[in-house]
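Question (not urgent): is this output format expected?
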Amino acid sequence: MAREASENRELVATWDRLERRARDVVELDQLAEGDPDLRKQVAAELAEIGSELRAHELDLLFTDPYAGHNAVITISVGQGGVEAQDWVEMLMRMYLKWAERRRFETEVIDESRGEEAGLKSATFIVRGPRAYGLMRSEHGVHRLVRISPFDQNHRRHTSFALVEVMPELESADEAGIVINPQDIRIDTYRSTGAGGQHVNKTDSAVRITHLPTGIVVTCQNERSQMKNREMAMKVLKARLFQRQQLEAAEHLDQIRGQIMPAEFGSQIRNYVLQPYTLVKDVRTGLEVGNAQAVLDGEIDPFIESWLRWRLGRAGEVAQAS
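Got this back:
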């Protein structure tokens, strides 16, 4: 709550400052008639204000009450075999690069490596201003089309991966997620990831299975089994919270005749690397030809277009209601 209040105060201060600059430039414009130098100054100031307004305009698009939270992201392999496992690793790299560009902190919680290449699954946390609000745009199935580097016949392959994005719950939010100890099974096993010799010699990795839902969460990032267990429980609560949100959305679909957009569990974006390069978001229609730049973390255009698209859909729902 303290972090949210601080961010809100900073947001109000930013808009107050922009309003004062706008008033000043209006007054300057009235004085600039017949003065070429002042006209140039007014034009330059207007350009700066316009640029800053566009940069902060996105602040108005965050309507989710958990938008200011950090993001817990899980990427899971879909159809495509080794290709799909490689695709999971490519997506993880894309998001970590994006976070690095924004100077967000990241923490890898768990990685399950494939036998030949890539990752079967990965879970990591992105910490930064409005991380969840931004990363929500990535929730869904991502599809890759390319010439397989694993195919000796150089055939084109299609791979799928599921990206799940959940808010990292704060203490007050976690209190609302009650887990019956009898509903979970906790297994410990030997870590296969990095972490030093101590990790590899002890059963420090933790796997928690939530029996009623079948949700499985693993953590092997920490040397301490207790810390891995705490982190796994944190991720489990985030996933259970997400499940509650989805069930509520599905309930509204039934009541309102599916006015709510069906984003979850469906293909949201196509990444085509051969025979041409194109990344297209299925929901918003946004297309970017430089696929490599996108895979290097330049996904802000997709995030912004999704935020605007979602706001428009919310308006449609409000009118229909």
